[in-house]
Amino acid sequence: MADQSIPQARTPDAALEGAASQEPTPRGGISRRRLLGTAGATGLVLGAAGGAVGYAAAPSGATPLTSLGSEQVMFHGKHQPGITTPMQARGHLVAFDLAPGAGRKEAAALLRRWSETARRLMAGEPAAHGDTDVARDAGPSSLTVTFGFGHGFFGRTGLEQQRPAALDPLPDFSSDRLDKKRSDGDLWVQIGADDALVAFHALRAIQKEAGSAALVRWQMNGFNRSPGATAHPMTTRNLMGQVDGTRNPKPSETDFDRRIFVPADGEPAWMANGSYVVVRRIRMLLDDWEKLSGKEQEAVIGRRKSDGAPLSGGTETTEMDLEKADAEGNLVVPVNAHARITRPDQNGGAAMLRRPFSYHDGFDSDGVPDAGLLFICWQADPLRGFVPVQRKLDRGDALSPFIRHEASGLFAVPGGAAEGEYVGQRLLEG
């Protein structure tokens, strides 16, 4: 759980998302007033791409979609959605294995179906086949659907020569307690939305469209703070109560694309403008964590719990002073503090764009919560992003006794699909 962390729910950084205002701008780039205004003549709410956002004409006198429900993310683009999209309130992660006998042809047909389903649902339209009506009353609600390929996908489709070197299996780490049945997979899908029913609707549609081509390997559910839940835009908190997301790379930074996305002329060519995602289910040992005093928790992290400011002083965004000492000569930010260890300047510049969800899967027979973080981080090369940071955490992170890595996956996420294309087409038809 690195300090260079989560895309914040709603921050003043317009490169990632719009600040809260009386007239919020949806992610699709059209204002709520313009979006809702299109409903007047036809009864349909239209998004920036002209797709129907409502399933049917609104009844006379009905309340129009709220700004939350009307926000739309475009499916087609340079990069896939769900990477730099602001964090959503609800998320589902699901991995599939290709069915026995399914190969490249079946995979191509599947990705074609999935891409069309994602495009329709992200525009607020019903699925093309057998829509369940679960999200009939809702707008697109910032829905995103993102697709990736696992290491095993290439052998099953006869595309071993196209498997990127960056997709080599991750090394073992000392904090790993991995359940192989909930790790890896041939195909990975990330779903996010600001409405739980919209997110589930997409999950069910994707699972149904898999048909006989692919079988669910594992599936996980997550959540974040809902947009507008705080009095003003602020960094989110994790289930340990810590402000989590202060040092995330931002698209406004000059080296953002180099760190997060494969260059247009990169190798392999089908990964141009794509990214690599590391997915980890990290259980938080909350009973142990909550036995610590607030001061002890702050020492573990290296930041104040109240506002996320470094223990060396200032505000949340103040640069951490790693050399500052107290009156007794002790470092104010302990040498093994999580925020110190994960700083990019302490790891050769290694950076990740973290965009996780919290999770809670109930309690065990002793009343211990099964809760924590669905860690999701994006980088142009995991061997230069996730791996060196995790290796350093393995060597002495003060947070390690309070977390356990229980599942893991690494996936190649190709660039976005152009109009008329499906995700992965350049790989599967190249």
TrEMBL record:
Domain Dyp-type peroxidase N-terminal: 80-224
Cofactor note: Binds 1 heme b (iron(II)-protoporphyrin IX) group non-covalently per subunit.
Biological process, per Gene Ontology: iron import into cell
Keyword line: Heme, Iron, Lyase, Membrane, Metal-binding, Oxidoreductase, Peroxidase, Signal, Transmembrane, Transmembrane helix
Keyword Metal-binding: yes
Annotated compartments: Cell envelope
Protein name in the entry: Deferrochelatase
